[in-house]
């Protein structure tokens, strides 16, 4: 197998990542606390001294997940502004219009989500 030299750092980083995950999982399994399965009082739900209400398996409203996904989407948008902020002089007017188009698309998406009522918790 003849790999180009540019792939070697990527393979090293992937190997370190996989090794870290493996060591963390094995370390947690062998060095972590062992729980006895028979002690039902110790393994029961505990909510800061407040008596437990209902079941822990109660489904969440879909609005919660929709809001979380929208937050991630609009949060990732901010990440794409960093390269522009660092190199805005080098991008010039063409880069400015590209970022302006990018922002316009996300504003359209935001207004669409807003008009559809995805951000209203009361509905």
3D structure, described in words:
The relative contact order is 0.05. With 123 residues, the protein is mainly α. It has four helices and no strands. Helices cover 62% and strands 0% of the residues. The longest helix is centred in the C-terminal third of the chain and has 28 residues, at 88-115. The model has no long low-confidence stretch (mean pLDDT 83). Its main location: membrane. NDH-1 is composed of 14 different subunits. Subunits NuoA, H, J, K, L, M, N constitute the membrane sector of the complex. Belongs to the complex I subunit 3 family. The chain crosses the membrane at residues 6-32, 64-84, 96-114. It is found in: Cell membrane; Membrane.
End-to-end CA span: 59 Å
Shape descriptor: flat
Rg, Cα atoms, Å? 24 Å
Helix content: 55-70%
Low-pLDDT stretches are none
Strand content: under 5%
The number of distinct β-strands equals 0
Number of helices: 4
Give a quick account of the main beta sheet: strands, pairing sense, barrel closure. Answer: none
Kindly report the average pLDDT value. Answer: 83
Can you write the helix and strand succession as a string?
HHHH
Class from helix and strand fractions: mainly alpha
């Amino acid at each position: 197998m003849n790999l180009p030299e540019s792939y070697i750092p990527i393979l090293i980083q992937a190997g370190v990542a996989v090794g870290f995950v493996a060591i963390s999982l094995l370390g947690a399994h062998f060095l972590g606390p062992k729980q006895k399965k028979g002690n039902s009082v110790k393994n029961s739900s505990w909510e800061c001294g407040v008596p437990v209400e209902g079941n822990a398996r109660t489904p969440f409203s879909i609005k919660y997940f929709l809001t979380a996904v929208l937050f991630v989407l609009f949060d990732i948008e901010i990440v794409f502004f960093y390269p522009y902020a660092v190199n805005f002089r080098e991008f010039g007017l063409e880069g400015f219009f590209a970022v302006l188009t990018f922002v316009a698309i996300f504003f359209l998406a935001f207004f669409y989500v807003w008009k559809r009522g995805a951000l209203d918790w009361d509905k």
